[in-house]
Amino acid sequence: MTVHQEKTPGWLDWHPAPSRPALTLPAGAVDAHCHVFGPAAAFPYAPERKYTPCDASAEQLFALRDHLGFDRNVIVQATCHGADNRALVDALRRSGGRARGVATVRPGVSDAELRELHEAGVRGVRFNFVRRLVDVTPRADLWDVVRRIAPLGWHVVLYFEAADLAGLREFFLSVPVPLVVDHLGRPDVSKDPDGPEFAEFLSFLRARDDIWCKVSCPERLSLTGPAALDGERDAYRDVVPFARRVVEEFPDRVLWGTDWPHPNLKDHMPDDGLLVDFLPHVAPTAELRQQLLVDNPTRLYWPENEGS
Ligand SMILES: O=C(O)/C=C(\CC(=O)C(=O)O)C(=O)O
């Protein structure tokens, strides 16, 4: 059967020839947020999806990993695959232990499926609250999932818009497993990093010492650029104060990832090599980059390798 899954109109494909970063990454660096999409012929996109991406296979992700100088990946299930984690599991198995995963599961997931996900390398589930990506999931369903995954030692990755944090905070803080926030909690970077909205986000991070934060996606958050293209190593300046604030206050619970293949970007597709070269702006010392790229993701995703 031929699978016809046309890309969403205006879709931007991943950069075909990213530069090699000027920054040499520390040994053991982890790209802690990236995705695999399809290929649709083998792993069709979910009927309930809100967008249809271009394919972005495990082999293509691993080629990028090697090109940029990363050692490992954390692959995050994206909404275009719904709760069908087959493409994710396939990628984890092909990685030879060099990738761990974050899945999407529904409350009815079987014990056998959870066991299979864990054996493949899944260590968390993602709860997505971004309205353009998903329909609302009833709180009771989320609770059921939390109850199922807690005994496995997994965490919950949270994707939400900054404006929605006030309404979600109490629920998040009641979830009894570690939390990982995607993309700085998506701040409006036209606002003051010292203003009340970002203060609310920092206060959320302070509320528990097991809330982690990805300081990723400047290309998605930036309003003024300049884009990480054409040799630009001083990109996305409006995002820097927000990301740097979080890295400096929480150096032992920040993570970073490329977000390859950058779904749903509208105005440009960054050069992934230049995105890596953005890192010294948010983590200016080698010590901070060692924590951000190696120590922290190893502790969360490969605790058995910590210190080795
Ligand atoms: O790549 C990301 O993290 C962000 C996405 C896509 C996504 O999260 C999903 O489909 O699950 C976005 O903002 O469109």
From TrEMBL:
Pfam families: Amidohydro_2. One of its GO terms (biological process) is 3,4-dihydroxybenzoate catabolic process. InterPro entries: Amidohydro-rel (IPR006680), Aro_Compnd_Degr_Hydrolases (IPR052358), GLI/LigI (IPR047874), Metal_Hydrolase (IPR032466). Its EC number is 3.1.1.57. Keywords: Aromatic hydrocarbons catabolism, Hydrolase. One of its GO terms (molecular function) is 2-pyrone-4,6-dicarboxylate lactonase activity. The keyword Transcription does not apply. It is an enzyme of class 3 (hydrolase). It catalyses: 2-oxo-2H-pyran-4,6-dicarboxylate + H2O = (1E)-4-oxobut-1-ene-1,2,4-tricarboxylate + H(+). The keyword ATP-binding does not apply. Residues 30-301 form the Amidohydrolase-related domain. Belongs to the metallo-dependent hydrolases superfamily. PDC hydrolase family. This is 2-pyrone-4,6-dicarboxylate lactonase. The lineage of its organism: Bacteria, Bacillati, Actinomycetota, Actinomycetes, Kitasatosporales. The gene is pcmC.
